[in-house]
Structure formats: structure tokens, C-alpha cells
Amino acid sequence: MSEFLQLFTQYNIIGAFWVNIQLTLWSALFSLILGVLLLMMRISPISSLRGLAGAYVEFFKNMPLTIIMVFMVLGAYAQLKLTFSDKFVVNFFWLAVTGLSLYTAAFVCESLRSGMNTVPLGQAEAARALGLGFFQSATEVILPQAFRGSVAPLGNTLIALLKNSTVAAAASVATETSSLMSTMIEFHANSIVGIFLIFALGYIILIIPIGLLTTALSNKLAVRR
Amino acid sequence: MDNNQTETSVLFDEPGPRGKRNIRIANWIGGIVVVALAVLILMRLHNPPDGENQLDWQLWLPALDFEAWTDFYLPGLWMTIKAAAVAVVGSMIFGLLFGIGRLLPSNILKGVSSVIVEFCRAVPVLMFMIFFWRFFAFAGVKGASYWAVVLALILYNGSVVAELVRSGVGNLPGGQREASLALGLTRTQSLMKIEVPQALYAMLPAAVTQLVVVLKDTALGSIIMYTDLLQESRRLGSMYFNILQTLVVAGVIYFIVCWMLSELAEWLPSRMQTRTAAPAEAEPMAPIAIMDASNVNQIAVAKELGEDHYGGAPRRYHVRHRGSNATARGWRKDRYMQGYDPNHPDILPDQHHIELPEFPELPHPKSSKTKKDDKGDKDKQ
Amino acid sequence: MTRFNQCMKALKRLAAAVCAAACVVTLAACGTDDEAGKVRIGIKFDQPGLGFKKAGTYVGFDVDVARYVARKLGYSDDQIVFKEAPSKQREAMLQNGDVDMIFASYSITEERQKAVSFAGPYFVAGQDLMVRKDDHDINSVNDLNGKRLCSVTGSTSAQVVKERFASEVQLMEQPGYAECATALFSGIVDAVTTDDIILAGLAANARGRLRLIGKPFTQEYYGVGIKKGNTALARRVDAAIIDMEKDGSWQRAINDNTRGVTYKPNMKYNPPKADLGKTGEKA
């Protein structure tokens, strides 16, 4: 037991989780914005935008996140010089956020689209009958209802995002949980199971509230029909 | 896809001549922006501030020649597929075992299965991989990284399959189970002989979609030194310093394989629907860990609202509430709550409460159940 | 009843198919080729210049030494089975008997000697820096303050630089040296650090754009990993290495694998005297 306490003092486990939480929160914010944008493009009357958004979603749905993360460093940073900061630690953090956001936006778009399916056709027809144009009927009638209908899949996406934030290790973010776990296992091979359980427990503690909150919100916000 | 089309077509009116012109202009602008962006990126790659021209044929040739395929990509792809195939088979077995475990009448089995499934869903796959990799290496298992990749994928995807089995059984019409009970089968027999086989067919398309997830996640194996496609392409890149090019090739291969599987998953439902009474759909509801809710039932209700437009008779009861609440018992309860059997004693008090509007705050879970036009409400309970 | 039977049949068929698929794949996964009468040698597959899989065969300095030693031990080239020995799995592979010998830039350390025995050393490497050819700012490890340095995840070489020489260096970790070299090419890092022979092997493939500083600041004794306590084998390997150094094959192997780079192994220590077969157990 004292060995575990020593592990906690020797390594900044909470700090590592905090890095993952920060990655998750920033990526969630940006991917939500990008996801809504993609959805608008996907349902818009302009066919080139529709095609573009469709291609984007299809591309990221079928591409491993690991490759995208490696690309963020070796492609976007090394070749295209996408630079956020002169400090490596900060820079890699934001590169990882960019990669995660681009990847997750495709899934946010899909979640919102499944939320759109909860909106009956009559709503759109009524909006048109009232004389609302595409933009108005989308932003004032369809999207608000779609959001309320897609709380659950969005919660799913958030949980997946939190778990995916460990892949930031592939984008040279060395302070997050999976990297820390590797280091700890390397130096404390005897307590490997204990170390793993610490991190597993950490994720369970983080994910349970998200799951509960999603369920509660989903029931509360669902549009009664 | 079909849904999207109908959605798209009703969101805006058929454009008139001016609308058509505007759309055409917007199309051109959109196209030009995309092309400009692509050209800008290519120019940057062609002539980066420092470093070398990434479009040089000298860099692309070693990434594409015969040797690259025979020595690196194809062996790597084989390793990827080997891990993915074993992981899929394993996760099917794992998922069946624990998915059925969660449906069995025994509370102990149900509890144990639930804890295992929820644990495996909450822990990131990469954490599992690193742990098993080091663990197997210390334990002296041959091919530690291979088994680490396979086992990590089995645990996570198996837990997803377990949820698919559970919701597949929950989505079967009640008659299936009632008929088998009436024929004298026990609850467990009915589950194993009637419900689970049908649930398997119903979940097959979703399982193929899950295969795409497995294939994508094998790429995580490269972090633990498993020589999959991604790792092999990195190696090839370390020979001629064209790692960017080899990664592009690997990315294209991943995309093509995953995309073909996705297409298969979209084609399968129509074939599987003939073999099951449950709805077979390609898009599995990604399950939320711990007490998931899903919006599948909301979608189902929205579809139902559209059904009457074709002049058919309205449904007697709603599409079953799906997701992890789909236990066999909950599914029967729902049926009564939906008013399928108006004479059932569970239903009768409801009508009573509606007739007494002076006590609307009475905390009864089934109040407001009997409004004839209020179909969707019942599914949200 | 026929409905039940059909269901059962379908389920059985499915189960059979699943089992068949599982069997095929597992068999393929654990397919054992005939290894009787062959020597199994662990090498790196991913380090150009030391051990690299190329065109269906293996090339590099470690591979050349391994081939030479195996020949001296009485194995022809087609009796050698090369296996990949990633850094973290080397001790385990020897302990399980997966391989007979390991030639994989395997530094002799006291920690490792608790788990395995070594023969050799057959080379003394030293940690060095690799920079862009036109970059003249960095001429020794002390010039790294405020610069960017790349090393491989889990290796201690970058920490050594940061702690002992340049405390203000920025570190980047990448999974492999190729990624580091790509980063160096494109200018996002200024130097790559690891053992000089590995750097030389990388630079040899870099179309003349990278160079080594040539001032190694540590000594790493590369040994041949063998199963703990196999002194007889260690002695024979030592003898083979001494032969290799004497008859010029050793120098030829160095030259072949670092062609195109101005690289000389640290002459103060190289070629090393292979004598661990006699003293290794005491160390």
C-alpha cells in the first residue's frame, strides 16, 4: 500500500489526467463548432458544400486516428509549418487538439444528423409553409430540435473523445496518461497491475458522470411529441 | 443516406430561376475555395520554407515501387488484418458471452457481466494495449505485442458487441418470446433458442460496422511496436526519409479497406432483414458507458409519425425502446405501458388518473399515458 | 419445432464458421517454421545502418557481425533465422529461448547483466548529435541551449543531454529515429541525438543532407546478448569477434554501412577487445 502512495507522490498522475481533460475540453469545443458547420453544409441547397462535407465525414470516419495524429506532427507542423507556439510542449498540445477536433468533428456531424432524424418531416414542412428560407428554418426550427434529440449520441462522442485523447501520445504529447503509464510500468514493473488499475479507475471516475449527465439531459431535453 | 435525402429536400423549396443562379454561383465559389486551398497546400509541400520538395518523384517512387509493396505494405496489411480478424472473432465470442450474461435471469451472472462490460467500455483501448503488452512481455508470452493488440481490441469491441446483442434481443417483437414461453420453453431456453439467434442476424450489419472500428484501432498497435501497416510504412519511410509519402500510401490503404467494409455494412441490412423479426440496421448506436440512453427510440418515433401519411393504420404500439434498457423484463413492461393490452391491470390505474385532473402532480410514473394522439411520449419514459 | 431446429442449425453453422475462422487465423498467427539445426538471431528490423529489413533480406552493421559470428560458429547463411528484437523485449526473448543471440545495439549494463549474459563487446558507440549539413551553429553538445532536440520515446539519451550539458534544450519525442530525421530535415528540430553508429546509418541514407558532429560524449559497449550463464557460447562468440576485427571484416562492415558519411568510430575505444566471455560473469 505504501508503495502505491509513493507512486502517487513520485509521479504526477492527477496532472496527467488534467492534460487529457484539457485536450478533451478544447477538442470538444472546436469539434462541436466544426461539426455544426459541417452539418449546415451537409443539408444546404448548395451541392458543392454538400459534397465537401460528405467527403470530409467519410474521410475521417474511415481513417485511423493514429495516422491523423502522426500527420499533425510530420505533415501539418513539419511541412506546412502549422505552428502554435515556440514552446514544444504547448505546440504539440495544440497540434493534438487540432487533430482530435478534425477527427471528432466528423462524428459530431453524424451525431447531429441522427438527431435531425428525430425531427419529424412536418416541422420542416411547416417552416417552409411559413415562408422561412433554408437558413432560417435550419437554425430556428430544425437545429434546436436536432440538438435536443442528439444529446445522447453527442455524449457518446464526448466519451469516445476522452478515451481517444490518449492517442495524443502519437502527436508527441508526452505528459498525458498513456505515456505516463508506460513510464511508470517501465520503472515499477512489479506493480504493473496496480498501476493499470489506477489509470483504469481514473477513466471510470471521469466517464461515469458524463454517462449519467448524458442520460439525465437526454431525458430532460427530449422533445415530447 | 436516404433519410438525409428526404431531410435535405424538405428543408428548402425547389429553387426558382434566381435561386438556381445563386446556387450555381455559390457552387462555383465553394469549388474555387476548395481548389485554392488544395493548390496552396501543394505549393507549400512543393517548396517548404526549409526542407525539401515533398512532391519530388524521388521521394514518391520508393514509396510506391514493387519492393515497397512486397516488403512493407502487404506484410503490414496482413499483420493488420490478422490482428483485426482474430479480434473480431474474439469480440463476437466475448460479446455473446457477456451480452447473454446480462440477459440471463440470474442476478449474479447479470451483475458480473455488467461490471465486466462497463469496465471494458470505460478504459481507453490504448491503455489496455500498453498494459497487456508490458504484462505479456514480463510473463514471457511469444508475440507479446500481437496478443496485446488482439486482447485489447477484443475487450473493448467485445463489450460493444455485448450491448448490441442485448439491444438486438430487446428489439424483437414480444410475440417471439411469448410464443416460445407458451410452447413450454423456459426463459433461458427461449433466450438461447429463439431470441439470441434472431438478434445475431439483426446485429450482423452493426457488427460489420464495428469491424471498421477494429481495423482503425489496430493502428494503435504501432504505438506498442506491433508491425502493422502503419509501423511498416514508417519503417519504409526511415530508409529513404520519405516517411510523409509512405504514410500517405498507408492512409490510402486504410481508407480503401475501411470504406469497402462500410459499404458492406450498408448493404447487409436488407439481406439480414429477411432472417429476423428485429430491425437490422447498419448504424449501431454507439453505446454510452454506464447507463446509456440513446436517441434511437426518438428517431423511431419520428419515423412512426411519418407513417400514417401513406394512409396505413396507425401502430398499436411503438417500436421498442432500445439501448441498454432493453432487458427482457423491461421490454415486456414497455409493451403494457404502451397500451398494447388495454385490459392489463397495470394499465387501468392510468386512465383513472387522467380522469382526475385536480391531482395532476400525483407522482405516478404512468400518468399521462392514455392520450390517444400522444404516441411519442410513452417511449421517452 | 422445425423453426427451433432451423434456428439451432443456423446457430451451429454460425458457430462452426466462427470456429473455423478462428482456427485458421490462429494457426497462421502461430505458424511455426522448421527451426531445427538453425541459429536464431535477434536483430533490429527498423534501424538503417544497423539492422534493417530490405528487399527480403537484412542489412546493417549488426547483421554483418551476426552473419560473421554465425559462420564462425558453423552455421551457413541459410541456417540463420533473423528475428525482430525490439528494445523492450530483448531480455524476455533471451530468457524464453525465443532467440539464441541478440545483436541489436544492445549496450552492456549492470542492470541487464542480472537478467542475461553478454559476449563481446563488438563495438563501442558513443552518444552523438546529428544536424543539418548547412547548420553551423551547433558544433558540440554544449551549443544546444535554446535549440530543439529530438530523441526516441523511452530512450534516456535526451535526458542525458538535458541534465548534463544543456539545460535549456527543448525536447521532442518521436516513436522512431526516422520521424526524428524527418523533423530534422524539415527544420522543426535542430538536432537528433543517440548513439553515433545509429546516426551514421541514418545519415548514410539522407542524400548528403545531414552530418554528424563527431564528438561522442558517452561510451556504450555493444555486446552480444546470450542466455544467462552460457559461458561456453560467450567464449566462442568472443573468439569470432576477435577474428573479425583481425581479418579486416569488421572495418569493412563499418565502411559498408556508413557509406557517404564522414564517420569514424571513436578510435580511443574501437575496435574493442571482446573478453566478456571470460570476465562477463564477474561483472
From TrEMBL, chain A:
Record-level Gene Ontology MF annotations: transmembrane transporter activity
ABC transmembrane type-1 domain boundaries: 17-214
Keyword match Repeat: no
Keywords from the named record: Amino-acid transport, Cell membrane, Membrane, Transmembrane, Transmembrane helix, Transport
Transmembrane residue ranges: 20-41, 62-80, 92-109, 192-217
Keyword Transport: yes
InterPro entries (alphabetical): AA_ABC_transptr_permease_3TM, ArtM/GltK/GlnP/TcyL/YhdX-like, MetI-like, MetI-like_sf
UniProt-annotated location(s): Cell membrane
Membrane topology: Multi-pass membrane protein
A GO BP entry: amino acid transport
Single GO cellular component term: ATP-binding cassette (ABC) transporter complex
Record family assignment: Belongs to the binding-protein-dependent transport system permease family. HisMQ subfamily.
Protein name: ABC transporter, permease protein
UniProt organism field: Bifidobacterium bohemicum DSM 22767
TrEMBL record, chain B:
Lineage, uppermost ranks: Bacteria, Bacillati, Actinomycetota, Actinomycetes, Bifidobacteriales
Topology in the lipid bilayer: Multi-pass membrane protein
NCBIfam families assigned: HEQRo_perm_3TM
Family: Belongs to the binding-protein-dependent transport system permease family.
Location(s) in or outside the cell: Cell membrane
The organism of origin for this protein: Bifidobacterium bohemicum DSM 22767
Keywords: Cell membrane, Membrane, Transmembrane, Transmembrane helix, Transport
Ranges of compositional bias, category Basic and acidic residues: 343-381
Sequence intervals crossing the membrane: 25-45, 77-100, 112-133, 145-165, 239-262
Superkingdom field: Bacteria
Span of the signal peptide: none
UniProt entry tagged with the keyword Transmembrane helix: yes
GO CC terms in record: ATP-binding cassette (ABC) transporter complex
SUPFAM superfamilies: MetI-like
Sequence segments annotated as region (Disordered): 340-381
Protein name: ABC transporter, permease protein
TrEMBL record, chain C:
Signal as UniProt keyword: yes
Pfam families, per database record: SBP_bac_3
Keyword tags: Signal, Transport
GO cellular component: extracellular region; outer membrane-bounded periplasmic space
Domain of life: Bacteria
Matching SMART domains: PBPb
Residue span(s) of domain Solute-binding protein family 3/N-terminal: 38-257
Signal peptide stretch: 1-28
Annotated region described as Disordered, given as residue ranges: 263-283
GO biological process terms, semicolon-separated: amino acid transport
Homology family: Belongs to the bacterial solute-binding protein 3 family.
Protein name, UniProt field: ABC transporter, substrate binding protein
